[in-house]
Design goal:
By secondary structure, the protein is an alpha/beta fold. The protein is built from eight helices and twelve strands. Helix 3 runs parallel beside helix 4. This is UspA domain protein.
Length: 293
């Protein structure tokens, strides 16, 4: 299922820590990592009035510097086959283009994190990737802490697949995400299922109480199915809140190492739903965003 991964890096502390955490993906059968750095097209803006040959010389010099840094990162990924790509253009567009061109199974990148210092870190390139990617995206999350007057990234999890929080509404996307949960669950120690009923809509001729019983029955079936396949503890949390709030509430209490959630978009349809957007923005924990294809 996960054989080839795209790992974009911009050499920030966030992306370099993602490299360290990315080695956990070997447990899922990942064999190859495409290590990508995009030289932002704005890089040459200050040189717009320079001669073309001068611009080319500066870009080539920077490109050699980038390649040297990527080779250093490659050494840390010795368990994988590594392919290095350096592209020039708009970062989000290039990441999506390379993902499609390389036919990757997963994009793995920093979504940064939330803290008292930086309350809304999700955005920019990560937000565009979340909205437009045609493959699942795993966003790492880090807490920004301050020590001795400097800001540092702090990992908010131990091993990324140890404790999975699987959000489901039994939609087609959530059901297809279940296949990933079964694969990831093989290397996990616990799976928690969260189901929000704040937006529950009874079917025609069905009372709310009957609708709730139907959901509880589905939840029990899902729990038993996953337990039989994974041989790990599976817990169910049915929360009478809107989905985004319910997921964050359970996450803050249970402290998962990964939240797995479906997006509303299908295939290459752009955009993510309100719930996915809220979780990506508010979660202090890594998030696997799954889009059905």
């Amino acid at each position: 299922m996960i054989r080839k991964i795209l790992l974009p890096v911009d050499f920030s502390e966030y992306s370099l820590m993602s490299v360290e955490c990315g080695r956990d993906l070997k447990d899922l059968g990942a064999e190859e990592i495409v290590l990508l750095h995009v030289i932002d097209e704005k890089f040459t803006d200050p040189l717009r009035y320079s001669k073309p040959e001068i611009i080319q010389t500066i870009v080539e010099s920077y490109r050699r510097e980038v390649e040297k840094k990527l080779r250093e990162i490659e050494e840390k990924l010795s368990d994988f086959k590594v392919k290095i790509r350096i592209e020039f253009g708009e970062p989000a567009e290039e990441i999506l283009r390379v993902a499609e061109e390389e036919k990757v199974s997963l994009i793995y990148m920093s979504g940064r994190g939330e803290s008292w210092l930086l309350p809304r870190m999700f955005g920019g390139v990560a937000e565009v990737i979340a909205a437009s990617s045609f493959v699942p995206v795993l966003f790492t999350k880090f807490e920004v802490v301050q020590e001795a007057g400097k800001n540092y990234c702090k990992i908010t999890f131990s091993r990324i697949f140890d404790k999975i929080l699987y959000a489901t509404d039994f939609s087609e996307t959530a059901e297809r995400l279940k296949d990933w949960i079964e694969r990831i669950g093989e290397v996990s120690k616990r799976v928690d299922i969260v189901i929000a009923t704040g937006d529950l809509k009874p079917e025609e001729g069905e009372s709310f109480e009957d609708a709730l019983k139907r959901i509880e029955g589905k939840a029990l079936d899902l729990k038993e199915d996953l337990e039989s396949k994974l041989n790990v503890p599976v817990n169910v949390f049915i929360i009478p809140e809107e989905a985004g709030r319910a997921i964050i509430e359970v996450a803050e209490r249970e402290k998962p190492t990964l939240i797995a959630i479906g997006a509303n978009g299908i295939g290459k349809a752009k955009g993510i739903g309100r719930t996915a957007d809220e979780v990506l923005r508010r979660s202090r924990y890594p998030v696997l965003l799954f889009k059905a294809t």
